[in-house]
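Long-time lurker. I teach an intro course on protein structure, and each term I like to show students one example going from raw sequence to a predicted 3D structure in token notation. This year I'd like something fresh instead of my usual example. Would anyone be willing to generate the tokens for the chain below so I can use it in lecture? Attribution to the forum is fine with me.
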Amino acid sequence: MTLSSYEAKDLFQWLTDKEDILILDVRNTTDFNRFQVESPYAFDMINVSYYDFMEIEEESVAKVDKDRAIRIVCAKEGSAKYVGEILVKHGFADVRYLTGGIKTWGNLLVPKLVHKGDDYALYQFIRPGKASCSYGLCSGGEMMLFDPSRNLQFYLDFAKSQACKIIKTFETHLQADYIAGSRMIAEQTGAEFWANYGDFKAAKTNHKTLTDGETHRFSKGGPNVTVMFTPGHTPGSTTYIIANKFMISGDTVFIQSIGRPDLGGKAVEWAIILFNTIQRIKELDDGLMVMPAHYMDWNEATDDLLFCLPLGQTKERNKEIYAISNVEDFIQFIKDNMRPQPPEYGVIRLVNANLEQFDPEKQEELDLGKNECAATAYAKAQGAS
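-- Reply from a regular --
Happy to contribute to a lecture. Here you go:
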């Protein structure tokens, strides 16, 4: 019996394959409750602190099922390895520890094919640890990215695997819940970085300014990408419509709920703007496939584990929101569902505008934790629980 390691992508595969494993998280209770492994399907997980294994070894070992395959998670790797060695010493047969710790789960990106035709392929990159999605559009040996995370190497490797050069990277808005990757990708690859002036006017980034209604194209045909300004969640929120079939909606339209307009501290002003945006969205083709920047729960995914739903069905799911017919009632809905934003959001905005920077360890700390970007009673209840 020997101790071995595993990677975050292995864990996601085991969970989606519904393999019989027990996840043992050995972080302290506070960190465990703040951010933990989640899966599309039910699985078994227990939290027994690393310190308990140090101080009350026998009692701690007794809490772990000896007949199960054990997959240990900790903050940085060392604690999981230490606990793994204890379990092996006690005769556990299948014990592995997560390489790099919980941050590797937080940064994991899972590529899912949304559409593949003769002239283009569209991919959704799901980030399970953040409940967020970024996107890649490939055509004629070129690739456009939308809302990439700071996991730069993933996008470079993926583009290479598709024999593509990254030519453009777009942001749907100035992100507050995670550190965005467009600036870094542009610096690394020479790709054009496109963003909305409404959010990026003070940013110290070498970006190009979007125009409402403009179209972006590939060098050798492929689909058109049409820019649609959809302010409200932020003043510069932007939706990208691909081939008149898919809408990368950022934090404006979610499968469950809509983006909250109170994160900038101007709830009423931005709620009015968002209400007007929703009226425009209600006029769009119901057949457009909504591709959101975030999800709240795996229940929103399709059977293929994609976060993608026709706009008509999205409106039906959220009919209590889309049915609001006057701005006063909409403002009240927003006020009823307001809740404190995580304290790190203000700092992350500064990082994404390149107005402040931190070392990689601090960036990892800021970047952990699920998003809090939806305006919904469900999210309010979750935040209170």
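Some talking points for your students: The chain has a mean pLDDT of 92. The CA atoms of residues 158 and 358 lie 26 Å apart.
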